[in-house]
Design brief:
It is built from 8 helices and 10 strands. By secondary structure, it is of the alpha/beta class. It has one domain: 3-Layer(aba) Sandwich (Rossmann fold), CATH 3.40.50. It has a 7-stranded mixed beta sheet. Strands 4-6-5 form a 3-stranded mixed beta sheet. The chain starts with 7 loop residues before the first helix and ends with a strand.
Length: about 240
């Protein structure tokens, strides 16, 4: 069937997707549900440790897709944490914690971006702000830092049944270094990976794949993320890793 013969509703849906994609975004709801959540179920993943939760977008997406397991979400920024807490309060199987996650316990300074989701412990680079002005920093917050190892112990998580989700804008390697005692036990990892430097000192995609591969994970697939508006080059994506058979 040629495009002009498609039903009006279908043509409208295709047109909407094209407009979204041209803006540098990707419509991923169906893929998230039928590929990602299905894969988690097949691998026996029942819990999620959600690092860098922001206002709870990932947890909410999990719930909308039908995931009914336990979620532990961790967010450092005060305003975002307040919204996360409000979103999770009616869900008895969704716990939240106000903290940054790093390589060791203590205190860290988080740079707050205008759009909130681009906030990071690391200095931001001009490549990011050129691509999206709202990623620029507008302030800082001093935040108590914890580690993945501490979170696993404190919340009684079983790593082999847990997805470790990381979305920390370039600070991924520090989060992984704070999982020294537990990383080899996790059943799955979902992490944002960057193709070109957007934050000073961040690990890029090849290093992330090598590190996780060295800890017994296979990269199963990737989900497109942020695309540079002018060049159409992909800057960030999410990688989904499962433990090697």
């Amino acid at each position: 069937m040629t495009a002009h013969r498609l039903p009006l509703k279908t043509r409208a849906s295709v047109a909407a997707r094209l407009l979204v994609n041209r803006a540098g975004l990707e419509v991923t709801r169906d893929r998230f549900k039928y590929r990602f959540l299905h894969s988690l179920a097949r691998q026996g993943i029942t819990d999620v440790l959600d690092i860098g939760a922001n206002v709870g977008q990932f947890g909410q997406l999990m719930r909308r897709g039908g995931f009914d397991g336990r979620i532990v979400s961790v967010e450092p920024l005060r305003e975002a944490y307040g919204r996360l807490q409000h979103r999770a309060q009616a869900d008895g199987n969704w716990e939240v914690e106000h903290a940054a996650v790093s390589s060791s316990p203590g205190t860290v300074t988080v740079n707050v971006s205008e759009n909130s989701v681009s906030s990071s412990v690391l200095p931001i680079l001009q490549r990011s702000t050129d691509a999206a002005a709202a990623t620029a920093y507008v302030g800082t917050e001093q935040v108590t830092a914890t580690t993945v190892d501490e979170l696993v112990a404190r919340h009684g998580l079983t790593p082999e049944r847990t997805l470790l989700k990381i979305d920390v804008q370039g600070f991924e390697m520090s989060v992984l270094e704070g999982a020294a005692d537990t990383i080899d036990g996790f059943g799955a990892v979902r992490t944002e990976m960057t193709l070109v430097p957007l934050y000073d000192g961040q690990a890029l995609l090849p290093e992330m794949i090598e590190y996780l591969g060295g800890h017994g994970f296979d990269l199963w697939y990737v989900e497109p993320g942020w695309v540079e508006p002018d060049t159409k080059r992909m800057l960030q994506l999410d990688g989904v890793f499962f433990r090697k058979s």
